[in-house]
Amino acid sequence: MHAWLCENPTGVDALQWKELPTPQPKAGEVLIEIKAASLNFPDLLIVQNKYQIKPPLPFVPGSEYAGVVAAVGEGVTQLKPGQSVACLLGTGGFASHVIAPAAACMPLPAGFPHADAAAFIMTYGTSHHALVDRAQLKAGETVLVLGAAGGVGTAAIQIAKAAGARVIAAASSDEKCELCKSIGADATINYSRENLRDAIKAATDGKGPDVVYDPVGGDFAEPVFRSIAWRGRYLVIGFTAGPIPALPLNLPLLKGASIVGVFWGAFAKQEPKANAAMLAELARWYGEGKIKPVIDATLPMAELKAAYARMGSRAVKGKLVMVN
């Protein structure tokens, strides 16, 4: 097998494409021939030693992937060789093969392409957990999505629309705003040239959004929270802008609003049955055409460093997917 190996987490340039022995699955494990793996923001942080999870060295980055079961270990009865699966384990995806716990694999229904499956679990799992579980989103409410043209942002738009909400998508260019409209956003804000608070006020008739989905953080957080509706829920997804904002705590007091943390990975570990039910619902929605990953580009696995550079440039709309 071959894999991108991180032996020293000093950044993308330190990754090396190496030939390694192909492992064999132990009890409860499967060997997966990887067909596609998506690039997520944590995949950048983890090779820079900036992610909250720090795997032992050396490791193969690539948190999310899909492929075909090549072999099964002792006691594995729910999966069989030749079956297509998707998996999200935090590492291992940027390779030709990987060992995964059978229990962590999501069997793919017929007609679910590997490229879509590799771009599915993290973004849609995060967005469904955030909007449906943590925010308790109701039909007819208004959702503001920041960073709306990215991987989690595009997933959030689709899930909010599937839940019956009105969606305002905020992004950094007219091109990205048009993409958001094409997947269901009811209104858009280009925050590179519009005053964010004024635009939110205009788009909500002064009421403000009921739910804010924020994977960006940075300087946007405070002005957006000041614009939130009474009893609003501000979903803290991540900090792609870099700085972690510090909000004055009088704001949630005055608004009767909630700051709600969203850590889908911890939810999946703490509440596996609820997570499995959620993923099953998302798979049904995919089959019904309600949701579909937005894929910016598919690139050969050998071009991983170029994909990292593209993601770092903020030019990506949706997800980047590496294919073998």
From TrEMBL:
Sequence ranges assigned to domain Enoyl reductase (ER) in this UniProt record: 11-322
InterPro entries, alphabetized: ADH-like_C, ADH-like_N, ER, GroES-like_sf, NAD(P)-bd_dom_sf, Quin_OxRdtase/zeta-crystal_CS, Zn-ADH-like_protein
Record SMART domains: PKS_ER (SM00829)
One Pfam family, short name: ADH_zinc_N
Example GO molecular function: oxidoreductase activity
PANTHER family: QUINONE OXIDOREDUCTASE-LIKE PROTEIN 2 (PTHR43677:SF4), SHORT-CHAIN DEHYDROGENASE/REDUCTASE (PTHR43677)
Name of this protein: NADPH:quinone oxidoreductase
Gene source species: Ramlibacter tataouinensis
Source species taxonomy: Bacteria, Pseudomonadati, Pseudomonadota, Betaproteobacteria, Burkholderiales
